[in-house]
């Protein structure tokens, strides 16, 4: 089976790790290949280093190096480099980069500086974390830099744009966002393998990633949305909202900015042109009868506190997809 997924950071990587675990439990011999198309709209250059937060969360989680409780960053991390930089007055200090994590950014920045594409660099990083040996292919959505910016009030009746990370991390999404702009998207093309992975998949799964700034940004890459509409594979998504609230993070603030209600049904509406099935928490109300997306309430809470529950959730999404064949 060839499974294609779109993924942000924590929600995406926990789901994909669960999916891998679920597939390993199959007695059918496999092999099953998972292609992960990662969001790079969160990317930022800090201290001269190229940081790709969502790709790194995927690498660390799938490679067994993630800080479990936090959901991102490295386990057993220290922050001595950041402390030294603070002593020099180097900005910004609102974004925490641990010492082990910095090594990833140095490696990436060095290889990018030598002329390698982000796809090539990501493949090299993924080798170190053992993703290929697990049958997981990690692709950035695009090799061109795309950065999500957030348009906020400037306090003087006008507006200004700040980098998504400044809005999310420094301001904790507390500044009302007027809109999101994917800077660089007009020059972006899908990275090698991205469109083929969707078109050639047997199943496409959307993890419960942020629908606006993770999935929504990937959908903006030219060709991705058309590939999802056109693929013969069933496309099934998992809601990132439980009981009308994000399980973690500020997806509700992101939805408010684009004028979409924070409900599982309203989020499904964002993808209704290509979605064949949508898995929601049993407590979430049924969507209006007019909804074009068939919604399935799972018989368990839609939560991934550990690998086993993530595997069960991914298995439920996969079973739903396999029950829905496209014409
Ligand atoms: P980020 O890039 O680290 O913000 O991660 P993603 O975009 O991949 O995922 C963030 C989304 O995952 C948030 O909107 C969360 O509500 C959702 N999420 C995280 N954990 C869970 C979970 O256990 N269950 C569900 N249904 N959603 C989750
Ligand atoms: Ca992210």
Commentary on this structure:
The protein is an alpha/beta fold and 327 residues long. It folds into 2 domains: 208 residues, Rossmann fold, CATH 3.40.50; 40 residues, no CATH class. It contains 12 helices and 14 strands. The strands form 4 sheets. It has a 7-stranded parallel beta sheet with strand order 5-2-1-9-10-13-14, sandwiched between helices. Strands 7-6-8 form a 3-stranded antiparallel beta sheet. Helix 1 packs across helix 12. The longest helix has 16 residues. It is globular and about 60 Å long. InterPro entries: CofD, CofD-like_dom_sf, FbiA/CofD. Its EC number is 2.7.8.-. This is LPPG:FO 2-phospho-L-lactate transferase. Keywords: Magnesium, Transferase.
User: How would you classify the helix and strand content by structural class?
Assistant: alpha/beta
CATH classification class of the largest domain = Alpha Beta
CATH topology of the largest domain: Rossmann fold
Helix and strand element order? EHEEEHHHHEEEHEHEHHEEEHHEEH
The unreliable regions are: none
**Tally of helical runs:** 12
Beta strand % = 15-25%
The oligomeric state of the chains shown is single chain
